[in-house]
Amino acid sequence: MMIITPDNIVEYILKNTDLFSSEPLLVEDISDYNPEEELEGFVNYIYRVYNQERSVIVKQARPYLKCFGESYALTPLRNLLEHETLRLRGEIIPQFTPKTFYIDKENNIFIMEDLSYLKVMRFQLNKMLYFPKFAKQMGEYLAKSNFYTSELYLEPETHRLLQASFINVNMRSIMENVAFIRGAFGDIDYNTPNKKLLNVSELVWSKDEIILECHKMRDIFMKRGECLIHGDLHTSNIFINSDQIKIIDMEYTFMGPYSFDMGYLLANFISQFSAFTFKSNIDQEKRESYCLYLLSTIKEIYTNYVYYFNQCWEKDVKDTYRHVKGYKESILDNFLSEVIGFTACANLNRLISLTGYPDYDVIEDETDKSNAQGLSIAIDQFILLNRNKIKTIDELIQTIVEIRKKFMENRS
Amino acid sequence: MMIITPDNIVEYILKNTDLFSSEPLLVEDISDYNPEEELEGFVNYIYRVYNQERSVIVKQARPYLKCFGESYALTPLRNLLEHETLRLRGEIIPQFTPKTFYIDKENNIFIMEDLSYLKVMRFQLNKMLYFPKFAKQMGEYLAKSNFYTSELYLEPETHRLLQASFINVNMRSIMENVAFIRGAFGDIDYNTPNKKLLNVSELVWSKDEIILECHKMRDIFMKRGECLIHGDLHTSNIFINSDQIKIIDMEYTFMGPYSFDMGYLLANFISQFSAFTFKSNIDQEKRESYCLYLLSTIKEIYTNYVYYFNQCWEKDVKDTYRHVKGYKESILDNFLSEVIGFTACANLNRLISLTGYPDYDVIEDETDKSNAQGLSIAIDQFILLNRNKIKTIDELIQTIVEIRKKFMENRS
Question: What is the interface pTM, i.e. ipTM, of the complex?
Answer without folding.
Answer: 0.90
